[in-house]
Amino acid sequence: MTAADLWAFLPMGYALTVAIETPVLVAGLARRHPVSRRLMAGVWLTACTYPIVVLVLPLLIPNYGVYLAVAETFAPAAECGLFWAAFGERETVWRDSAAIVVANLASFLVGLAIF
User: Fold this and answer.
1) Most buried by CB count within 10 Å: which residue of 27, 69, 77, 112?
2) pTM of this prediction?
3) How many whole angstroms separate alpha carbon 59 and alpha carbon 3?
4) pLDDT at 91 over 90
């Protein structure tokens, strides 16, 4: 894919990713986080990592298998770090991180099925 193709895909892919990941985060993040924060996490975390996954990594890593491994490791790891930095507490770090990883896995699997 060219850079133009990747830019054209970005809005639709972002919206789909948010639509898949947000319900998982609302259900999975610790109850100490208000629902507004859990909803915001679906939009914010994806906004932070999705452009790198869609626009940068495909151009840097031409091998699709290697790209998938890097992208699908980078996104949840970065999102866990961002969420921890903003809202983390020791008591809920494992639950919050698990929810973020599951949300990313869900969007990855739906993406594989669709594309």
Assistant:
1) 77
2) 0.95
3) 8
4) yes
